[in-house]
Design a protein that fits this description.
Length: 72
């Protein structure tokens, strides 16, 4: 596993090949917590795609990576 910058985007390499399984391997930006609750509870009256249900992405919060106490 390794990282490469291709066309200005950080990509994950597995065995020297770009891994497309995880579309955002840096997990930054991310969806807001709970954004898919309504989607998975069947409250998708507008018929939005799951991609649309994610809504606007936001920069990852440091505590998502380090925990609530700021320690890794």
């Amino acid at each position: 596993m390794d990282w490469a910058v291709l066309r200005g985007r950080k990509e994950l390499l597995v065995g020297g090949t770009v891994n497309r399984f995880i579309p955002n391997p840096t997990f930054d930006p991310v969806a807001k917590p709970g954004c898919l609750d309504d989607y998975y509870q069947g409250k998708n009256k507008a018929g939005a795609s799951i991609r649309d249900a994610f809504g606007e992405l936001e920069p990852i919060h440091p505590e998502y990576r380090t925990g609530t106490h700021g320690s890794p």
